[in-house]
Amino acid sequence: MKNILVTGGAGLIGSHTVDLLLEKGYRVRILDNLEKPTHLSGRPSYIPSRAEFIEGDIRSERDVKGALKGIDGVIHLAATGGFTPRIIEYLEANTIGTALMLQIIRNERLPIKKIVVASSVAVYGEGKYQCSKHGVVFPPIRPIEQMERKEWELKCPFCASELKALATDELTPVKPQKVYSVSKFDQERLVLGLGEEFGIPSAALRYFVTYGPRQSLSNPYTGLCSIFSTRLLNDLPAVVYEDGLQTRDFVYVKDVAAASVLVLESDKSDRQVYNVGTGNSLSVLDIAKTLSRIYKKDIAPEIGGKFRPGEVRHIVADIAKLKSIGFKPKYTFEDGIREYVEWIRSQGDVKDYFSRAQTDLTKDQVVRNCR
Ligand SMILES: NC(=O)c1ccc[n+]([C@@H]2O[C@H](COP(=O)([O-])OP(=O)(O)OC[C@H]3O[C@@H](n4cnc5c(N)ncnc54)[C@H](O)[C@@H]3O)[C@@H](O)[C@H]2O)c1
Ligand SMILES: [Zn+2]
User: Is 39 near ligand 1, meaning CB less than 6 Å away?
Assistant: First the structure.
């Protein structure tokens, strides 16, 4: 494999993946439509001149056909994400975009040797939990009425006692809840199912929460570290949903890029799905506090009784499967966040796009107030 197409290669994960592929001697082509509000000021300067850049859309047959010409391997990252009220757009870009790419590969009999598709932690909904009486359980997401009452923790579906989160492995049943999650699971199944049918080795990566330099500073719908940073740097409080004690597995983008290239190259990864995370969990409040300490902004986070229906309470990756093919995260959160903050400081003045978005999201009931 020599020629690799990275769709979404102008984005956070894509751009670091492109850098790593070039470093390893691959020839790289990017297909990216520079979606707004992620790319408000057009083509990012970090796109290397050594990569071929096609400004084009994964939903366009012409663009995708052109992008696939002469390609040996695909890392498919282009997608619409974030908490927004949109519905059809997720399916169009993610589900249909992936189906279109696969249809072109089949119709044109393209000699692709490997496809790696970006799935997400979101496919699990709530992951794996432990009940003291019932052992391992896989609870559904919390009902809206429960969240309105500010009862944040998960209850056992059998006895209603409070559950403890366990590390979620790939055998955990998927329960995609939001449209975004449904579309990510579609992508995963389409690539693995049709990949097998076409005889193309394929793998899906369930990325956990990824952060790092180049995470859009203008997209207020996704990217916790960037949203909190732009708030604090404008002397505004970080807005924390629920009580801030919900936990996530934050993984540094360079580790995510390394995992993606590892899976592209591994001949053991055919038809497999892998969690990509660190195995460590941090609360949202931990992130808010860490960033205000680093920025030396003594601004208490706003914990204002807001929540987002469908949001998961706790999820942390079991990464044993990815480790079994040679993955080892290199970055601790402290190291990763230091590099991220260094980058943000080099970006000049940053704006707060969140206040306005939050008003709209509340109007559209994507964000709700507790009773
Ligand atoms: N960042 C995370 O925490 C995270 C977690 C789980 C899964 N993922 C998945 O990883 C992939 C990359 O995410 P990211 O964090 O780098 O996001 P990102 O928004 O930084 O990058 C996505 C890129 O895709 C491009 N894009 C969007 N729609 C497109 C379209 N229709 N045609 C062509 N290009 C399009 C955007 O312009 C952007 O450059 C996505 O598939 C996302 O769903 C990300
Ligand atoms: Zn129980």
Answer: yes
Close Cβ partners of 99 (under 8 Å, ≥ 6 residues apart): 190
pLDDT at position 304 over 80: no
Question: What is the enclosing helix (H) or strand (E) of 196?
Answer: helix 179-198
CB–CB of 207/121 below 8 Å? yes
Backbone phi, then psi, for 272, in 5-degree steps?
-105, 155
Residue 287 has pLDDT above 80, yes or no: yes
Q: Percentage of residues in the chain with pLDDT exceeding 70?
A: 100
Task: Evaluate: CB of 58 within 6 angstroms of ligand 1.
Answer: yes
- CB 112, CB 73: distance < 8 Å: yes
Distance of CA 351 to the CA centre of its chain: 23
Catalytic residue list contains 353: no
pLDDT tens by residue, 333-355? 999 999 999 999 999 999 999 99
pLDDT at 82: 87
Which amino acid residue places its CA nearest to atom 11 of ligand 1?
Answer: 77
Q: What does each C-alpha distance from 188 to 191, 214, 252, 316, 323 come to in angstroms? A: 5, 25, 22, 20, 20
Residues 6 or more apart from 28 whose CB is under 8 A from it? 3, 4, 5, 6, 9, 18, 21, 22, 50, 51, 52
Q: Which of 180, 211, 252, 331 is catalytic?
A: 180
Report helix angle 333-345 to 284-294, nearest 10: 50
* Global pTM value: 0.97
Domains of the chain by range and CATH?
3-369 (3.40.50.720)
